[in-house]
């Protein structure tokens, strides 16, 4: 069913239309709107709503065409909070949903909006999502709550009174204001960018002091993981702080359905994965050369990009790369002629990863460094994070240093000419 929302409607009419959209609309593909603002309304549903304070943590999950994360365990109130992104009239809307452990047979839904200086995070931090009791006469309704940050039309200018809670639009991406820098002086932000018709979720780590010469590091992931892995393990912060260069962690559109990815799912054929990653990297890093880190399935994106855009890729790190039939003999011959630095790793207990690594070295990357991580399975970086980080940081730092020296040498040669 189609619903039309006119932002000049009376507030009561607008609220009814928005609630109807949230309750019944299905999602379809469309373009992400560039500029954003937050609707200034706080909706209280039902007589006698009593709000108590409780804070909780969360991860996303996907319902009715929305991109969502798997939740953490229920909090002490038995409430589970999830996050999702739904599409409404061509606009991508971020939603938090609180679900009680036991939902009553009769329920109403409560929709919490917010003022211009705030976001849906307010209601989660204050505990509104964790516990609400609704009663009228003897009727008690257990409720789930949806906290909405509504994205609006291009060109809208936001009067920001509290920048800690307001998203902003940059280069067509929905971007959240960062938290304070971590103990390494690294700030991590999140954004959604559009690549070949697919909306891709990206985490960006920015060091407090960026070096004059930098490469960008792009972290991909295996089918069972998402970009959250690299943030939780401290990989993003480590690389950004030690190299002084920006680091990106990407949620790829392919992989396991329960991996907790925020990117819009898409079935991208292996033949187009190199072009997809190339387009994404150009959007994120511009003309800056990149180092790709590609575990398992994600090698089917990184290796074809290396074939197609070897001038863009300054280095490749692959962990138990699974390419199946996507690497042709012609591509393998092309790769074997390249001199792009490569580091290949696999776990001691990962027979499949060992075999795929040996095959890639034999067919396409004869000059690659090969490292076995002891007592590690397929996701060797999970079993041996310290050893993985040590090898990764050493490789990335060396590639950046060598590239810097080469650029400086070329500059000296130009001056002499």
From TrEMBL:
The chain crosses the membrane at residues 32-51, 139-158. Keywords: Cytoplasm, Membrane, Transmembrane, Transmembrane helix. It holds the Pfam family Abhydrolase_6. It is found in: Cytoplasm. Its main location: cytoplasm. SUPFAM superfamilies: alpha/beta-Hydrolases. InterPro entries: AB_hydrolase_1, AB_hydrolase_fold. Coiled coil: none annotated. Residues 217-350 form the AB hydrolase-1 domain. GO terms for cellular component: cytoplasm. Belongs to the AB hydrolase superfamily. ABHD14 family. This is AB hydrolase-1 domain-containing protein.
């Amino acid at each position: 069913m189609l619903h039309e929302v006119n932002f000049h409607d009376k507030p009561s009419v607008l609220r009814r239309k928005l609630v109807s959209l949230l309750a019944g609309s299905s999602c379809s593909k469309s373009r992400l709107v560039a500029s954003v603002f937050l609707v200034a309304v706080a909706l209280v549903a039902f007589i006698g709503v009593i709000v108590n304070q409780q804070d909780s943590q969360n991860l996303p999950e996907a319902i009715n065409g929305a991109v969502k994360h798997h939740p953490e365990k229920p909090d002490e109130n038995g409430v589970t909070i999830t996050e999702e992104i739904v599409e409404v009239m061509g606009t991508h809307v971020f939603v938090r949903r609180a679900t009680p452990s036991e939902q009553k047979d009769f329920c109403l839904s409560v929709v919490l909006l917010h003022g211009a200086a705030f976001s849906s995070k307010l209601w989660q931090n204050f505990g509104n999502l964790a516990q609400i009791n609704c009663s009228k006469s003897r009727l008690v309704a257990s409720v789930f709550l949806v906290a909405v940050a509504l994205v609006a039309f291009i060109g809208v200018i936001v009067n920001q009174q509290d920048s800690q809670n307001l998203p902003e639009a940059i280069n067509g991406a929905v971007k959240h204001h960062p938290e304070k820098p971590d103990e390494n002086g690294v700030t991590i932000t999140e954004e959604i960018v559009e690549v070949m018709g697919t909306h891709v979720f990206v985490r960006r780590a920015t060091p407090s002091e960026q070096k004059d010469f930098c490469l960008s590091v792009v972290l991909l992931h295996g089918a069972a993981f998402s970009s959250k892995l690299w943030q939780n393990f401290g990989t993003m912060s480590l690389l950004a702080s030690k190299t002084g260069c920006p680091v990106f962690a990407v949620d790829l559109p392919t992989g396991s359905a329960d991996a907790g990815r925020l990117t819009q799912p898409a079935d991208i054929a292996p033949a187009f994965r190199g072009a997809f990653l190339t387009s994404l990297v150009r959007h994120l890093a511009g003309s800056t050369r990149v180092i790709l880190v590609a575990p398992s399935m994600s090698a089917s994106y990184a290796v074809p990009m290396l074939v197609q855009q070897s001038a863009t890729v300054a280095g490749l790190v692959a962990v138990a790369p699974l390419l199946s039939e996507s690497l042709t003999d012609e591509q393998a011959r092309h790769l074997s002629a390249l001199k792009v630095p490569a580091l290949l790793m696999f776990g001691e207990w990962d027979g499949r990863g060992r075999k795929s690594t040996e095959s890639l070295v034999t067919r396409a990357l004869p000059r690659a460094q090969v490292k076995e991580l002891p007592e590690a399975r397929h996701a060797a970086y999970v079993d041996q994070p310290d050893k993985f980080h040590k090898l990764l940081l050493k490789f990335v730092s060396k590639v950046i240093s060598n590239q810097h020296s080469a650029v400086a040498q070329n500059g000296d040669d130009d001056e002499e000419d």
